[in-house]
Write a structure and sequence with these properties.
Helix content: 25-40%
Strand content: 15-25%
Bound molecules: adenosine-5'-diphosphate, magnesium ion
Shape: globular
CATH superfamily of the largest domain: P-loop containing nucleotide triphosphate hydrolases
CATH topology of the largest domain: Rossmann fold
Number of strands: 10
Distance between the termini: 38 Å
Structural class: alpha/beta
Order of helices and strands: EEEHEEHEHHHHEHEHEEHHH
CATH class of the largest domain: Alpha Beta
Largest sheet: 6 strands, mixed
Strand order of the largest sheet: 6-7-8-3-9-10
Number of helices: 11
């Protein structure tokens, strides 16, 4: 392990360690190009947000970064944890990428609804544990110690996300916002260096959104985990992101600091569904036109989030396609 130098969260530079290095990836499904020649870098310790209207290719990007989809063109390398040597992602299975330090949550929540909250988190933790299935079946001493450690760690993570009082409730019985936080706890259980959150605030109320913003900051600043965030709620995004990347129709149309993105005519146009020129003219006429105003919901409502479908599956091993 090589030590990395501490650098500020903003103003990425060549000197910073790169987590994901994405070069010119293109992903097609038949005639649909869901990612079109996109390049980006995610730096160690940053909160990087990916925004864009529905169908822009955000989830496809996450799926490409985690081995669910393989882009037909381009390269992706990953250094999951601090000091890791960059390795290619292309061609690797999702569980391998998870072991390389990448955890994620899904746009459509994926929990084991018939397991308790605690058990769901333990599933995440145990994907990282050493005792194999045979030791587990035989209940060997190592396995029993790991079991105790895993239970303790699961409680700690539930506490972190504010769900310790729900430990023994079935995941399926939790309120929607609680399920989203539980999914984050389970993802953290795999001990990631980077976490990918796909619309973690979708379907949650304003109080839950504020708690979520605090949680995201805590994960980043206290746990030292790099965060890649897809989120439609502009107020939330602008309050937590160090930097943003904007996708539209599969292409990257902008990249920059929150204040730059909020005023970017191409970005405003993408959200309004007009041309950049029209958006610029509108912005000049109405200086307050930004992606989000301080007190109001601003244009957040223009990019309505997809509702969850409540599908369940084995979240730790599945390579099935993310439903959209
Ligand atoms: N498995 C798939 N099969 C066919 N088309 C897909 C698939 N996954 C994504 N797409 C298409 O790629 C585009 C981007 O989708 P997606 O990445 O889900 O966008 P976003 O997450 O930004 O809303 C859409 O046109 C979508 O229909
Ligand atoms: Mg999506």
């Amino acid at each position: 392990m090589t030590a990395t130098t501490e650098t500020p969260a903003v103003s990425p530079s060549e000197g910073r360690e790169i987590v994901f290095d994405v070069n010119h990836i293109t992903l097609r499904f038949g005639g649909v190009t869901s990612i079109n020649d996109v390049s980006l870098r995610m730096y160690r310790d940053e909160i990087l947000a990916v925004i864009g209207p529905n169908g822009a290719g955000k989830t496809s990007l996450f799926n490409s970064l985690t081995g669910v989809y393989t882009p037909q063109e381009g390269s992706i390398t990953l250094a999951g944890r601090t000091g890791d040597a960059p390795q290619t992602v292309i061609g690797k299975k999702t569980h391998v990428i998870n072991h390389m330090g990448v955890a994620r949550t899904f746009q459509n929540i994926r929990l084991f609804p018939a397991l308790t909250a605690l058990e769901n988190v333990k599933v995440g933790i145990e994907t990282r544990m050493k005792a194999g299935p045979i030791a587990s079946m035989l209940g060997l001493p190592n396995q029993r110690r790991e079991e105790r450690e895993s239970t303790q760690r699961a409680y700690d993570l539930l506490k972190l996300v504010g769900l310790v009082n729900r430990a023994n409730n079935l995941a399926g019985s939790l309120a929607y916002g609680e399920q989203r936080r539980l999914e984050i706890a389970r993802a953290l259980g795999t001990d990631p260096g980077v976490i990918l959150l796909d619309e973690p605030a979708a379907g949650t109320n304003p109080v839950e959104k504020r708690d979520l913003a605090d949680l995201i900051r805590l994960i980043n600043r206290e746990l030292g985990i790099s965060v890649l965030l897809i989120e439609h709620d502009m107020k939330l995004v602008m309050s937590v992101a160090d930097r943003l990347i904007v996708l539209n129709f599969g292409s990257k149309i902008a990249e920059g600091l929150p204040e730059e993105i909020q005023r970017n005519p191409a970005v405003i146009a993408a959200y309004l569904g007009t041309s950049a020129e029209e958006a610029e003219a509108q912005a000049e006429a109405q200086p307050e036109l930004e992606l989000i105003a301080d007190e109001t919901e601003g244009m957040t409502s223009l990019a309505e989030s997809t509702e969850p479908d409540g599908t369940s599956f084995d979240p730790t091993t599945s390579t099935e396609e993310e439903s959209r």
